[in-house]
Structures are given as structure tokens and as C-alpha cells.
Amino acid sequence: MLAKQVWRFHTNPNSLITQVFKARYYPSSDLFQAPMGSSPSYAWRSIHQSIWVLSKGCCWRVGNGHNINIWKDKWLPNQNGLKVIIPNTNNPNIVMVKDLIIDNPPSWNKSIIEDTFLPIDGLQILQLPITHKEQSDSIMWTVSENGDYSVKTGYQAIQLLKNSQGQGPSNHDLMEKVWKIIWRFDTIPRYKVLVWRILNKALPVRDELHKRGIPCSLLCPRCESRIETINHLFLKCDKSRKEWFGSQLGINFHNTDTSYLNDWLIDFLLKNDKDTVISMIALLYSIWHARNQKVFEDKEVPDRVVIQRAHNSVSSFKEAKISDTATDSACNFNGAKSSDLATDILIDLAPHISTAHATSSSLHKSKPMHGTSSFAQNKRIQNSAGPPHQLHPINVNRNSTKDKWVRPEQDLIKLNSDANLSVPDLWGIGVIARNDEGLVMAAGTWSRPGFFCATTAEAWGVF
Question: What is the mean pLDDT of residues 265-275?
């Protein structure tokens, strides 16, 4: 509230109260450089302690450029720090902003700007509008859309400054609650990791890379019009705003005063149901993925694709969870899940070598599937009774800790089979046959629909 009074002092210099305070405390200086003074009143002490808020978020709005020092003043609203990045060139002909403006009609002197400033500074300068050469320079509040200070945007600026200094959200209990919500979500793990990285300012956006001394362009790779910060990438970028609004969430950031992603993200996590939050996080990841494709592959991802990817990933994860639950329920064998068992089939080579060869040749030679078998039975082709191809079960191996292939006895071939539900109603099946020396005799892989559980799929692969 006191910062609001400072704003009134600055925007109404002719008011009686402003003239009284100026004559008493800063008669020969600007309000933002005003000292505390000797024997200040309680009112001035309180107001003086609020000046820093506006000094952090205010910058000049260019008019005729007579009052703005190029190198010392803040006058680039879309630049980090609000100042030019390049140091003073000590050129006596380029000191004030008016030195960069040409007349008839008023416009920027593009050749001088390109010769004097870095490309990032030059782009920011050339984007500033110049309306009338006679219009004087004025101060604006960069946190709001219309340039006017309000108590609400002042609070947002204070929170933004706290987080930029590494303090993060001050309420430890609140953050504990947020972390519990995030890690308990039953969703794709990389989504939860992305949220963690955002809240801890651990994403390698270009602004963060530049702060760490890594040379790179500072512009957002998606819109190429602003410096890429975490807040810009997810909240301010025109492409991201279209994707937020076009998604099923329908969030319109054009009509909000949201400036800091962390505050908005925490508020969203605490106020919305699980499915809505998961959809939001999925879109965050899809935006980040699209950004990386542009940076590393120079590939433009359409807005509709970004939105569809987020929707599809959530739907696919839900379907996979449902399929896994159904498979686990259907494939219980004597109280054990299918993954607790392993498939081993032994074929006796002696004295029916021709039978074994026939069995091996019936398998298609191809690259074997690797992985732990999910369901199993041990069987042996016997020579004693019945036809030579008849299989007689020996026992079921329930040793879930066995992860190393064991060679069969001499003159035996061991068949290992495995089945995996790769997509709904489509099983990947693999069988490999090895002799007592560990040599692969034959192998086969198939994709087949229609099996109720892993046991049936593996049995099909063997027989």
C-alpha cells in the first residue's frame, strides 16, 4: 500500500502532498534516489522503505528520449534488468536515447543501433514504439499490462524478486504439501520430474545458460521475440499461450496478470482435481518437448500437435495401467503373478535326434526377444511312452530370483519363451532354443492378438 503512495508521488508531481515531501526530503534529486534524510517523519520513513519496490519494476517509456540515459537508466521493458547488456562505448555522440532517434518521421536510427549494440539489445530497442517526437519520456510499471502500478502487481513483483534470489516460496509447510501432491500422482515419472525442475529453477532455458557463462542466443527459440526464461517459455510465449487456450484446459493467459510460473503452478496444484492437474503437467511437458525439438532438431512443431501429444500421452498411460491391472488379475497361477515364473522347456535329443531337428526347424530363424520370462512350465520330450512329439510336464519352476540362464543337461535343447502385452490386445511373443553348450539352435518372434493372459501367449509361442 505504501508503494502505491510512492507511485502517486511520481505520477502526480504537482499535487500538494508531493510538493511538500519533495521540498522536505529530496529537493534536488529524483524520487527513486531520495535519501532518508535527517530526522525523518514516521510517514516518510515508511514511504522510503517502499521505494525499492518501484525502483525494481519501473522503467522509462520512450517519448522524445531527452531524459533517458542509454547506459545508466532502465528503459528496455522486455530485457532482464531493464537495461542494455553491452557496456558503455564511451562514444560522446551516443549518450541519451534521443541520439538514437531520427526525425521526419520519428523512427529509430537502425544503422547506429546495429553498429553500437548487441543483436539482443538492438532487437529490443527496435521493437519499442515511437509515436510523437514532442511527447516527453515517462515512467511505467513493467509488471502490469497497462503500465500502471497496483497493489496486486506490486505483490507479484515482490514474490518474483524473492524467487529470483533463490528464496523460493516462503511457506515451508505449503511446499511440503505441494511436493506430496506431486510425488503421489500416478502418472508418467518424467512429468513429475519436470515440475520439480521448474519449481527449483533447474531447467536449462537460455537465460539460465547465459547466467552460467554458456554462450548462446538469448531469444526464445519458439517465438524469437523475447528472452527465453522459464516464465516466458510457459506463460508469455505467444505459441505457448495459444496451446494453453486451445487445449482442453482452455486457460487464457492473455486475460490474467500471471507473471510468475511458480506461483501459478502451486496455486493450480492445490485447487484442482488430480485429472486436471495431470492434463496440465502433460501440456507443460509437451511444450518443453516442442521447444527442445526446435533447439536440437530445428523442427517446428504445430500447436495442434503439441496439444494432441499431451492428450495422447495421458490417455495411453491410463490405458496401459488398466491393461496391466487386467493382466495381473488374469494371470495369477497358484497365487503367484505371471512375472514370478519362468518358461523352460527341455527337448531330449537322444535317441531321437531327428525329432529334435524337426522341432528346431519349425521355428522361424530371427532375432530372439530378450527379457525375463513372465510365465513358465518345464516340460520334456520323453522317449519312453507315447508318440515322440508328446510333451510331459515335469514341474513348475517358481524361483523368481533366478536371473541367469542355466544350461540344460547333455543332449537336451532348452526352449525359453516370453510374452509381453506391448499395446492393448497385441502380444509380443518370443521363443529361443539353445543346446547344452549354450548355442542358439533356432529362435522366433511374433506379434499376435487375442490371448487372455501371458500363459496362453507363451504356450502358443512354444507349441
Answer: 90
φ and ψ at 46, to 5 degrees?
Answer: -65, -45
What per-residue confidence (pLDDT) applies to 333?
Answer: 40
Show which of 326, 356, 382 is a domain's final residue.
326
What are the helix and strand counts (H, E) for the chain? 17, 10
CA-derived radius of gyration, the chain: 35
Same domain, 309 and 354: no
Is 207:190 a contact under the CB 8 Å cutoff?
A: no
**Residues 253, 243: Cα–Cα separation, whole Å:** 11
* Three cell numbers written together for 357: 531337428
Question: Rounded to whole angstroms, what are the CA distances from 418 to 162, 337, 456?
Answer: 55, 14, 11
Same domain, 21 and 110: yes
User: What's the CA gap between 394 and 299, in Å, rounded?
Assistant: 58
Residue 459 pLDDT level (bands cut at 50, 70, 90) = confident
Tell me, what DSSP letter sits at residue 417?
Answer: E
Residue 410: burial class (beta carbons within 10 Å; 0-12, 13-18, 19+) = exposed
Contact predicate 391/381, CB 8 Å: yes
Question: For the whole model, what pTM was predicted?
Answer: 0.43
Q: What pLDDT is attached to residue 195?
A: 93
**C-alpha span between 432 and 360 (Å, rounded):** 10
* C-alpha span between 39 and 44 (Å, rounded): 10
Residue-range definition of the domain harbouring residue 287: 169-326
User: Quick one: DSSP state of residue 96?
Assistant: B
Q: Encode pLDDT of 35-48 as tens digits.
A: 888 888 988 888 88
Rounded to the nearest 5 degrees, what angle is found at the Cα of 232, between the Cα atoms of 231 and 236?
110
